[in-house]
């Protein structure tokens, strides 16, 4: 089982290896292929339930191609909540990592692992980045908001809508250039971002009894587990059903994340040790191994469980706590104590250089999605606005309480 790691934890030597792999993949034409394929299926895999399973399968296929070049290759995930206040300051966007902003009238990317690349889809052009606010970006999504979604969404459709209209869109739009188009896979950022979206889905799947949860708008009416994952002829999904992509560790989904629950050891379906795309598994309503892996305090809160005890303390037993953070509201005191002790050791890391804790900053509102983005996806603008409004309400609620964000 391969383990996808946080982009923040990679050494310069590991970035060099990624550089070699993506350079080779580009010379073999795979960046063009994936950009074209993503554009071809675009309307079937955004704003629809297939959003999660399609992108899970899509990123995996790209990773598998990379492993033909370097058998150790995995796609790092980029937890973009980490630098949500000032995304341009991210260590992931330096000249020896993903590169920074585009330059010149065409906003060509001058540095990073794809520095000065020429792309061929949809036509020959330099790979572009164009930050949303000049040399900086508008704020992304605070980790507290994502934690709230993981805790409170009880069906896939609400979770998908929350993620798609918040962290998913904000990050694509922040980087701009190729990353904000239908052919976004031209920018390797796409795969690192979607690995993170996939990790959040996997956290949500494990957070309650929702491992096989699948509902919402499908291709024809209500989505079903035996729907075919939308595919482009250039990809090797075949007629794989959505069910084959639901559980990591099975049906060729041979990977996990360094900061998410491990795949269940025993699950109805095929435990496949190969990279084959065994799409025969279509369990519906099978009994999952019980109990499901429990999320630790840190996983509940976007990896850094610092706020679990703070949120509980600040919000006490009021109804806002139950509405926005039901998992924390339901925690017993022993569990809280355990998290609290992790909290104490982790707090050191939140000190800035002069030893002052940065906990007096209010949480920032996310920038709203642009109209062009909403139109390109055919989203219902009312729904997009509602998700944004709700995130702002949650942020107001936390900012008006005694809660102080450690981020
Ligand atoms: Cu996409």
TrEMBL record:
Polar residues compositional bias: what residue ranges?
Answer: 88-98
* Molecular function terms, GO-annotated: metal ion binding; oxidoreductase activity
Q: Name one Pfam family in it.
A: Tyrosinase
Query: Which Gene3D superfamilies does the UniProt entry name for this protein?
Result: Di-copper center containing domain from catechol oxidase
Know the name of this protein?
A: Tyrosinase copper-binding domain-containing protein
Q: Which InterPro entries match?
A: Di-copper_centre_dom_sf, Tyrosinase/Hemocyanin, Tyrosinase_Cu-bd
Q: Which UniProt keywords apply?
A: Copper, Metal-binding
Disordered: annotated span:
88-107, 265-296
Specify the Tyrosinase copper-binding domain's residue ranges.
Answer: 46-63
